[in-house]
Amino acid sequence: MDILIDIHTGSAPPPVAIVATDPPSHAAYPMHSHRHGQLIHAIAGVMIVRTNEGSWVVPTGRAVWVPGNTEHAIEMAGEVQMRTVFVAPGVRTALPAKCRVITVTPLLRALILAAGALTPAAVMSDVHCRDGRVVALMLDEIEQAPALSLHVPMPQHPALVALCTVLIHDPSQPVTLAGWAQTAHMNERTLARTFKRETGMTHGAWCRHARLLLSLPRLATGTPILTLALEHGYDSPSAFAAMFRKTLGVPPSEYFRER
């Protein structure tokens, strides 16, 4: 699958292109890749982008950078409006080498919309003219944007991948290190060491982090905090809210305001 075909059928894609897409509710794009790197911006709704290295949750007002030739799948958590910035290899060598989620500031959002109104031939015009400056500043903003902690890293060990995948698809299930060790036919200490080495997180921290991020699509639809806490394996709304604030910097009730 290559969305770039839609904007430049019959010839090479332009060095930088912006594509507007309003996919069907709950649409899913299977694993695919592009030569171009891409910034996938959620203007409205929540997306989940998956690669072999993990999952990235992309709420309204954020975007995920996916480097060129990275196999990835995209799932829409309900209705989503997307704007995708495609950047050809070599246009900007300072763009991130790995996937990351960033905040789309009002400036970056305005630049994406302005660049999207340009003709493909004008998009990479001389930086001494207005069109070129718009695109150059847009790429500057993408390059310098700090990463947000909206990544759920995946281990490499096949048994651990399988266990993590089960939790991702059913975050309400009870999980213990002992239970995972038994299922994976590993002792607890070996599992704990392997998990920390491959994900950079302890087993318990990973489970809490994954459950929290997986709650964002439901939070965006107005699901009550009590329901979210129970659906995502938390003992109480206060425990869920405390972890939410610690991880994302604001309480759940404020996360989607003015995004």
TrEMBL record:
GO MF annotation terms: DNA-binding transcription factor activity; sequence-specific DNA binding
Q: Which InterPro entries match?
A: Cupin_2 (IPR013096), Homeodomain-like_sf (IPR009057), HTH_AraC (IPR018060), HTH_AraC-typ_CS (IPR018062), RmlC-like_jellyroll (IPR014710), RmlC_Cupin_sf (IPR011051)
Residue span(s) of domain HTH araC/xylS-type: 161-258
Sorted UniProt keywords: DNA-binding, Repressor, Transcription, Transcription regulation
Highest taxon in the source lineage: Bacteria
> What Gene3D superfamilies is this protein classified in?
Homeodomain-like, Jelly Rolls
- KW Repressor (keyword) present: yes
In Swiss-Prot or TrEMBL terms, this protein is called AraC family transcriptional regulator
Coiled-coil ranges (or none): none
SUPFAM superfamilies in alphabetical order = Homeodomain-like (SSF46689), RmlC-like cupins (SSF51182)
